[in-house]
Specification:
alpha/beta; Rossmann fold; 6 helices; 25% helix; binds hypoxanthine
Length: 251
């Protein structure tokens, strides 16, 4: 595909393929950092070139701490993608971030550990200290918010994403701490993805899909099941194709 890629989409839990995409090629790439989570799906979506990558693999076999974030972003960059919209399933902490809501966070706090979190982390690599004060790309965030408005898709603007290690969900006390820290959402895959995107100078934003109440936040407390998570992500993701179409219409 020689046409420049208008958008890369990284799909998270519950979003392993993009509906409405006309698949042109599935490309298995290798990178200096190893293989990405899955073959990259190159396709056309509403007359634009788009690439899709399933973060956890197409069979959801990679736990958040085992995802090769470096390879994933490197591969998208190598294909020529410069705008990356990352879909992340999250738990809602703030009262309005209810299951099935879509949120475009503007801040994050990283609680993950032991993940390969930088391209500087290799012998002989130049050490860079990228500006990460605003962790998400301002241009893409603005365009996504406008697109949601045009498409009539409800999207909460702003919020702080707390990135936890997983794969287990958090304790009530851990979520209470995240809330005190200022987190509105909690997820396991937001970092180091966002930081690596910044190192590659990608315009990267996170589209958070609220799959469940975070531990202790449900007004009617009950156990969180994977089935509920999948069902809520599916329901919340229903608006994503319309949002993407509106986003690409002005690309
Ligand atoms: N915590 C962390 N990650 C998540 C959650 C959660 O409650 N739900 C979906 N991803």
């Amino acid at each position: 595909m020689s046409e420049p890629i208008a958008l890369a989409l990284i799909g998270g839990t519950g979003l392993y393929a993009l509906p409405d995409i006309e698949v042109i090629e599935r490309r298995a790439l290798d990178t200096p950092w190893g293989a990405p989570s899955a073959p990259l799906v190159l396709g056309r979506f509403h007359d634009h070139a788009l690439v899709f990558l399933a973060r956890h693999g197409e069979q959801h076999h990679l736990a958040p701490h085992r995802v090769n974030y470096r390879a994933n972003l490197w591969a998208l960059h190598a294909l020529g993608a410069r705008r990356v919209l990352a879909v992340n399933a999250v738990g809602g902490i703030r009262a309005d971030m209810t299951p099935c809501a879509l949120v475009l966070p503007d801040q994050l706090i990283d609680y993950t550990w032991g993940r390969a979190a930088s391209y500087s982390d290799a012998d002989g690599a130049a050490v860079t200290h990228v500006d990460f004060g605003e962790p998400y790309g301002a241009d893409l965030r603005r365009d996504v918010l406008q697109a949601a408005r045009r498409a009539g898709v409800a999207l909460i603007a702003g919020g702080c994403y707390g990135a936890t290690q997983g794969p287990r969900l958090e304790t009530i006390a851990e979520i209470a701490r995240l809330r005190r820290d200022g987190c509105d959402l909690v997820g396991m895959t937001g970092m180091p993805e966002a930081a690596l995107a910044r190192e590659l100078d990608l315009d990267y934003a996170c589209l958070a899909v609220v799959a469940n109440w975070a531990a202790g936040c449900d007004p009617e407390p009950r156990a969180i099941t994977m089935d509920e998570v999948q069902a809520n992500v599916a329901a919340a993701s229903a608006g994503i194709p319309a949002l993407l179409a509106a986003l690409l219409a002005v690309a």
